[in-house]
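Handout, section 3.2

Students often ask what a structure token actually looks like in practice. Rather than define it abstractly, here is a full record for Putative pre-16S rRNA nuclease. The first block is the sequence as you would receive it.
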Amino acid sequence: MVSGRMLGVDVGTRRVGVAVSDPLGTMAMPVETIEVRGLPGAARRLVELVGQYEAGVVVVGWPLDMRGREGVAVERVRKFMGAFEKALVGKGHQVEVVRWDERLTTTAAERSLLKADVSRQRRKEAIDQVAACHILQGYMDRLRIESERG
């Protein structure tokens, strides 16, 4: 298992959802929704969160299409992650960046919020963070399964 906290990131066109793991890397929790008013500013905010949570790993949702191919959305994520990596260097932080297949995470997040009877307005505010939780939780579950197999 990875030591230290991890961040999960769901990059959208207008917002970036962020989740954080507990210190043991077993549970993902929502942190923040970053409004994207420009890539450099949003990327700097994510770097601040890396520092705040002392994260060693950032798991970014990689938006493959249903056939497992990179679609148009991948380019948006690539641009954001390029700005993020540039901002990391500027602050002297080093983290491992992991791509994680995010197919259907927004759908799963929406279902979770509907099941919890969250209002439409609150769902709009929380959907990106919950999607980031799904991305991060999936990655951590995979790490746990792999460590149990030896």
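Discussion prompt for tutorial groups: The domain at 5-149 is CATH 3.30.420.140 (Nucleotidyltransferase; domain 5). How would you have guessed this from the sequence alone?
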